[in-house]
Amino acid sequence: MRGATTPAHRRVPLAAAVLALLATPALAQAPKEAPKDAAKDAPKEEASAPQTYESAITNGKGETIGKIMIRDGANSLVMRVMIQAGGLPPGWHGIHFHAVGDCSDTEKFEKSKAHVNHDQSKHGLLNPDGPDEGDLPNVYANADGSVNAEVSSETPLTGEGGLRDGDGSALIIHANEDDHTSQPIGGAGPRIGCAAIK
Length: 198
Description:
Blueprint: H1 8-23, H2 25-28, H3 38-41, E1 51-59, E2 64-72, E3 77-83, E4 91-93, E5 95-98, E6 139-141, E7 147-153, E8 169-174, E9 191-197
Antiparallel strand pairs: 1-2, 1-9, 2-3, 3-7, 4-6, 5-8, 8-9
């Protein structure tokens, strides 16, 4: 007749098997650490340093009034515009990247040509059909005519469509502020400063 419990002679071999398994070296030892992820623990590669570029800013008399410093990263370019006291009339000034790196005609800076604009977009950071690749925010000249500003742009310094292409480009500073909508240059007026980017 079968009982409700397992007979003792059937329990003993099971208990012995469990004890034998626990006594085996593989289970008796403390578990080993999981192998480390080599890729995770490898030293991280340093992000490539941004390319840099500096250029003097000249005025309509051919005098150096300051400089630009450009750092070009993976997704955007950052440019500092530094102008000494007396360099510009006080107030807001439009600045743009122009298509040719030539500031030799100091009276008008027209050798720098029109804006960098490979896809023929409309002018203006606030224009629904823009902006073009040369458009940048305005900078403000203090009461003493000095400027310390930093602006960014998606236009690269080098590579396809970059500012340092075959004929270079130029940062042009205008007499007036840019309204960021009207054509062709937002009412920014005459060119009064230029920095070649080659």
